[in-house]
Amino acid sequence: MNNSKKILAIAASVAMLGSLAACGNSGSSSSGSGSSEDVKLLVWTPQEDQKAGWIQDQEKAFEKAHPEYKITWTNKVVSEGDTGTTVKKDPAAAADVYLFANDQLGMLVEANAIGELSDSAAEQVKADNDEAMVQSVTNDGKLYGVPFTGNTWFMYYNKSKLSDADVKNFNTMMDKAKVSFSIDNSWYLPAFYYANGGTLYGPDGTDASAGAQFGGEQGAAVTKFLAENIAAGKIIDDVDGSGLAGLGNGSVDVIFSGTWDAENVKKALGDNYAAAQLPTVTIDGKEQQMKSFAGSKAVAYNPNSKFQKAAAQFAAFLGSEEAQLAHYEKRGVVPTIKSLLDNDKVKNDIAAQAQAATIANTAVLQPTITEMSNFWDPTQAFGKALVQKDVTPDNAAEKTEAWVAQLNKQ
């Protein structure tokens, strides 16, 4: 595609996304032709987006694309992970436009703090993104927010120690290299239980009544496998950055992390830098696929905004192809739009391709229902008990059932 066609395609995508977000009037009306409507927008982004100048650049570009608005911008620092709890305190006083991690979607919908996309905007999001990314911003069949990056973890490894074939299986890596894994991190630990047939809130992660099904013989087998290999020193707990430090000093050959660590891993491994989707794991003689939680980070508008139309348009603008490419160039934020994953810059990015492969092949959509709030702390405590060897091969079944009972406590 030549440059002029690319520009037209980008403009069309932005226009379609921003044209009809499911919102009412802006709260004030434009005066007549040739005049501008005064608009005030409060925008929340992580500090890194402001420090890199990405959000300021996008605001200037939006102004050029929308001369019908005279905009006063206010930018405040709120990370994607903190958005849900911050918005919930007072949705009416929250940002007009914000970035959020999709695991907070249920909370935001319940608080009436996130605007639904219109049919046309939703169709554009569906056309631009893989199904996993679309589902990550879907609640009860409705789309909220425009995804701008995937959110998952995968594998980094020292390719001088492990071949492409070696990294396809976790057990093989343990036999041939030093493997570090965040056992006591509740975002990582479930990968082994999913591998052995476990589910969380049903097959799609949306059925609260189904609860956590990580117990029984299958769950006990996973816990026993982990306890045995921790005791044997074959799995090194990755805590407080110890895995990354180990890559640098040679005491670790494999870690599991995400794109946020890509630059540091490159520095640690140099020419031996490599990354891949998750491996299989062999438990009780059965080889099964490990699966990470996957989700997205997305842009949304606040339906309580006094300038709802402009807010919805700007949220869509921040999730557009042009804005996502700029986000990648400024900060290395890997885009979700399928056409950008084929961009030469992204295509040659080892971590970006590992993330895309993981989301497509070795991940489950992280549940966004509010019951997930019961999951994190008990799972972290269970992981710590594994690391501290309070959970052993002998008591694996008993300890697993106690953990699952906590997850399913009403």
TrEMBL record:
Gene3D superfamilies attached to this UniProt entry: Periplasmic binding protein-like II
Any one Gene Ontology BP term: maltodextrin transmembrane transport
Molecular function, one GO term: maltose binding
Pfam family membership, one: SBP_bac_8
Keywords from the UniProt entry: Signal, Transport
Signal peptide location: 1-21
Matches recorded under PROSITE patterns: PROKAR_LIPOPROTEIN (PS51257)
Family of the protein in this entry: Belongs to the bacterial solute-binding protein 1 family.
Name of the protein: ABC transporter substrate-binding protein
